[in-house]
Amino acid sequence: MHKIKKIIIPGEFPGMNQIIHANRTNRYAANHLKQKTDHHVKMYALKAMREGIVLDKLPVNFTFIWYVKNRRKDKDNISSAVKFIFDGLVKAGLLENDGWEQVGNISHKFDVDKKNPRIEIYMSEQNIERKQKEQEMNKMELAQVYMPTTKKYERYELPDGAAFYSRDMDKVCSCAWCGKKLKFGDTYTSRRIHTEQGFGYGVCEKCYYARDFKPY
Ligand SMILES: [Zn+2]
Fold first, then answer.
1. pLDDT by residue (tens digit) across 109-159?
2. Same domain, 95 and 191
3. What is the maximum span of the chain, computed from C-alpha positions, in angstroms?
4. Angle 58-136-109 from CA coordinates, rounded to 5°
5. pLDDT digits (tens, 9 = 90+) for 70-95
6. 81 burial type by CB count under 10 A (0-12 exposed, 13-18 middle, 19+ buried)
């Protein structure tokens, strides 16, 4: 089972505007604000590490959900605090560095929570994202079924989990005819259920002989 790698950091962070302002008025105060914020992040990163979170497959994709008290700050200003987060994660040792090698994609989501402002950080390895993409790719394709009687294709509604492509032969998918679960490597390529481009979906052995080769 894949454990979701998540860190929740309570509070609302200073935005870049606040830092720039602090920098103009008082260099020392600005630096202090940054140190304080980095340290806050570091504490929660260390806590997550004690609970067993490791980032061992690089690069890691980050999704930040910024829960703020109100809508006063602009989203770009809110998310500019991401710098503090990466610095804090590096200081804690959860992340070795915040370069391209370690950090994959970064995405931001925003919401308001007046009583409990916080940042939720979700971390996932690239290969998980690839699996999701594969899943979506299989789902997005419109399937069609060949009707030997009319020699035409008709729209076909696939069972959940049907797949015509998988990099991983052990991936569990569903027979495009009956929906039975089986490993992708054990499927037969259907001669009747195709993508619009003509790729055959994976089907179970029974359906393959009963339905793909049924005499009409
Ligand atoms: Zn089947």
1. 999 999 999 999 999 876 655 666 776 676 666 789 999 888 898 989 899
2. no
3. 84
4. 60
5. 999 999 999 999 999 999 999 999 99
6. buried
Say if residue 38 is in the same domain as residue 116. yes
Instruction: Specify the number of domains making up the chain.
Output: 2
> What's the CA-to-centroid distance between 3 and ligand 1, angstroms?
31
- The answer to the question of residue 194 being in a domain is yes
Distance CA 193, CA 156 (A): 8
- Whether 43 and 91 map to the same domain: the answer is yes
Q: How far is the CA of 208 from the centre of ligand 1 (A)?
A: 7
| CA-based R_g, the chain, Å | 25
DSSP-derived secondary structure for 63-113: EEEEEESSS-S-HHHHHTTHHHHHHHHHHHTSSS--STTTEEEEEEEEEE-
Q: How far apart are CA 83 and CA 33, in angstroms?
A: 13
CA proximity to 179, closest of 198, 200, 163: 163
As a whole number of angstroms, the distance between CA 166 and CA 54 comes to 27
Q: Tell me the CA–centroid distance for residue 142 and ligand 1, in Å.
A: 19
SS3 143: strand
Assess if residue 135 is contained within a domain: no
In this structure, the answer to whether residues 176 and 87 fall within a common structural domain is: no
| Domain boundaries, position 167 | 141-212
**Spacing, Cα 93 to ligand 1 middle (Å):** 49
183/118 same-domain check: no
